[in-house]
């Protein structure tokens, strides 16, 4: 017989090949490559799927939106602007108290010694806008403070889910300015009445209330349940064709605020931030917070902002 004349090693190769073809054996899967890492953002794969990335904020002590974070988030989001980008990105925080609190106030303080503050701050708004324009689906997994600049961030993601420690809100009006990258988006989500109530009162909203009025999609009783549900949703979304996900996101974006409304808000912010009232409040917040360190004032900043004027 011809097979009997074949070398034993060749017979083994033929047998293995036939078993693989029949589905009895499966070839080992190559390990997916890990996404790039950043100093303030740690990235990983969810379910070992390169179509789903978890981006975890880690910028001690309070995940401040400072020079390092702005550079990192701008670079990370820009890196997704290609045809091999993941279908889903989940944003979460390594800090159990702070998801993202607020902008580094030195970037808008007239008394700051920080060089090139305007240039450092400049990429922030374009990075937020890119979140709404890219085909990737962005999900915020919130279980800490997402206030002011942090609230701006979550409002530019496609979905928001909250755990028991989540708090959302904005302190800008108390600081003499406007919630520049959040007013239009929040009003679209929860309506002008609720937007006026919470933006003008400068209060925080917990997870359950945020879910009730539509600020977040849903609230969960534990961090574990939040993580499980968000992961399950991300895995489900990644099962669908990328084109259908992207085109649906584009259609939903048709209801987004107009470019003129966003430009007008930017001009209002620039006008207000230069006023003596705003600069007084900014410097007072820096003083009371011990230069934006973790403590009673930072933890209760939105609700406790009234002490700025006492």
Describe the structure.
By secondary structure, the protein is of the alpha/beta class. Helices cover 45% and strands 15% of the residues. It is built from 14 helices and ten strands. The chain has helices spanning 2-5, 8-21, 67-79, 117-121, 124-133, 149-155, 183-201, 207-213, 223-237, 242-252, 259-273, 276-288, 296-299, 301-304; strands spanning 41-46, 49-57, 88-93, 98-100, 137-142, 145-147, 159-162, 167-169, 204-206, 218-219. Strands 1-2-3-5-7-10 form a six-stranded mixed β-sheet, with helices on both faces. A four-stranded mixed β-sheet has the order 4-6-8-9. α3 (67-79) packs parallel to α5 (124-133). The radius of gyration is 24 Å and the shape is globular. The termini are far apart.
Ordered list of secondary-structure elements with their pairings:
Elements: H1 2-5, H2 8-21, E1 41-46, E2 49-57, H3 67-79, E3 88-93, E4 98-100, H4 117-121, H5 124-133, E5 137-142, E6 145-147, H6 149-155, E7 159-162, E8 167-169, H7 183-201, E9 204-206, H8 207-213, E10 218-219, H9 223-237, H10 242-252, H11 259-273, H12 276-288, H13 296-299, H14 301-304
Helix pairs in contact: 3-5
Summary, kept brief:
With 310 residues, this protein is α/β, with parallel strands linked by helices.
Global outline = globular
Sketch the major β-sheet: 6 strands, mixed
Mean pLDDT reading? 90
Q: For the largest beta sheet, what order do the strands appear in spatially?
A: 1-2-3-5-7-10
Q: What class would the helix/strand composition place it in?
A: alpha/beta
Quaternary structure classification: single chain
What is the element string, with H for helices and E for strands? HHEEHEEHHEEHEEHEHEHHHHHH
Helical coverage, percent range: 40-55%
Uncertain segments are: 1-7, 9-32
Strand content: 5-15%
Alpha-carbon distance between the termini? 100 Å
Give Rg in angstroms.
24 Å
Q: How large is the count of helical segments? A: 14
Number of strands: 10
């Amino acid at each position: 017989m011809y097979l009997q004349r074949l070398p034993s090693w060749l017979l083994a190769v033929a047998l293995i090949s036939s078993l693989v073809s029949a589905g009895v054996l499966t070839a080992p899967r190559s390990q997916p490559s890990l996404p790039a890492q950043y100093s303030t953002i740690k990235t990983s794969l969810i379910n070992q799927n390169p179509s789903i990335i978890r981006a975890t904020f880690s910028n001690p002590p309070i995940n401040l939106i400072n020079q390092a974070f702005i550079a990192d988030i701008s670079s990370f989001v820009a890196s997704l602007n290609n045809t091999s980008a993941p279908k889903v990105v989940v944003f979460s925080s390594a800090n159990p108290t702070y998801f993202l609190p607020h902008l580094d106030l030195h970037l808008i303080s007239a008394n700051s010694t920080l060089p090139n503050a305007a240039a450092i701050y400049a990429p922030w708004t374009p990075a937020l806008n890119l979140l709404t324009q890219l085909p990737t689906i962005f999900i915020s997994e919130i279980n800490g403070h997402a206030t002011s600049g942090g609230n701006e961030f979550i409002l530019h993601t496609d979905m928001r889910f909250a755990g028991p420690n989540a708090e959302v809100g904005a302190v800008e009006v108390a600081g003499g300015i406007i919630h520049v990258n959040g007013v239009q988006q929040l009003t679209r989500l929860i309506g002008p009445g609720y937007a006026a109530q919470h933006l003008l009162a400068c209060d925080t909203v917990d997870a359950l209330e945020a879910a009730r009025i539509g600020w977040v999609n849903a609230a969960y009783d534990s961090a574990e349940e939040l993580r499980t549900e968000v992961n399950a949703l991300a895995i489900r979304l990644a099962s669908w064709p990328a084109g259908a996900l992207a085109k649906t996101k584009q259609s939903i974006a048709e209801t987004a605020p107009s470019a003129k409304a966003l430009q007008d808000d930017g001009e209002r912010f620039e006008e207000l931030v230069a006023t003596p009232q705003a600069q007084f409040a900014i410097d007072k917040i820096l003083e009371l917070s011990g230069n934006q360190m973790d403590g009673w004032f930072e933890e209760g900043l939105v609700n406790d902002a009234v002490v700025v004027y006492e």
